[in-house]
Protein: Dipeptide epimerase
Amino acid sequence: MQLAYRVFDLPLKHVFRISRGATSVQPTFIVQLSHDDQHGYGEATTNRYYNATAAAMAAALESVRHLVESADPLQPDALLDRVSSALGGDNQFALAALDLALHDLHGKLKGEPLHRLWGWELADVPASNYTIGIDTIESMVAKLNQMPGWPVYKIKLGTPDDLAIVRELREHTSAAFRVDANCGWTVEQTIRYAPQMAELGVEFIEQPLPAADRDGAAEVRHGSALPIIADESCVVEDDVQHCIGRFDGINIKLTKCGGMAPARRMIDHAKSAGMKVMMGCMTESSVGISAIAQFLPALDYVDMDGAALIATDIADGAKVIQGRCQFPSGNGTGVSLHDGPLATDCRQIESTVDEIETQT
Ligand SMILES: [Mg+2]
Structure:
């Protein structure tokens, strides 16, 4: 098996703003694993906040190159256990990119899409939301109107005008809403907002409180009129047990949890505890989105609009059109790069921009 990687700069359709800055380009780290003329692809967007710069991810992969290149691609779980131990939890983003590439290659070598290898049927899969980032109310309405026809919109909140934002957006669509406070509310606010949000057609609240506030989470879950989904409180596998009894469900990000292998264990753990399962994305290409698509049969909710936010994609694979996933015909995750496979010795990590987090 040969390991190659390259950073691509994904141009965004719109400038993306968060508290730490703004960007119109999202650099993304693409891993390619090759064996017997088949190529598997994985992706992790670069993210300085999580110390997942391109240089850090390349260094992490170089430290395990000998393990990867000498391993049997038909035994992905054994290799990923060894790589995960070797990296010691220090670079989940690099691990995730490698994990996705290995699973994709495994499926391609076996001649099956991953969901089929995992025994999941594609009937009755959930539709994705489209995420509307925080902005002025007028701009949030404009963002909604630019993307009509999605069955669900996820509204980012955590402003002094949260109820006014949802009320105004409700004037412009009959689609379902979900809201994501990104840790920006208090216990009292969450319990007070929940019935009003429910009346406005909101189906759940994502991460109202800071991740560290476990007592508050239990209180909110007890008092909230709406289900509460953990995001920042459920980053890696070990977090699931702390969410039991404190949340109604969890939102898994492949990039942050370390890839498909830990994500599958998180799904099993959450479901056995009676929790709902959602999967979310970063602002990423169809490489990452096609990996999420393989999980759809196991999910209650999904946020996979990442590739809809970029102006020029780098890959063909799963497509999300007005929330509905069109599955690719290929095996593995079904993804291929527009410009063809990378050279099998490619190790290119230059980017034109500084990284900020563009998670949807
Ligand atoms: Mg979130």
Notes: The first helix runs from residue 54 to 69. The pocket of magnesium ion is lined by residues 180, 182, 206-207, 231, 251 (CB under 6 Å). The chain has twelve helices and 16 strands. The chain has two domains: 2-113+338-348, 116-334.
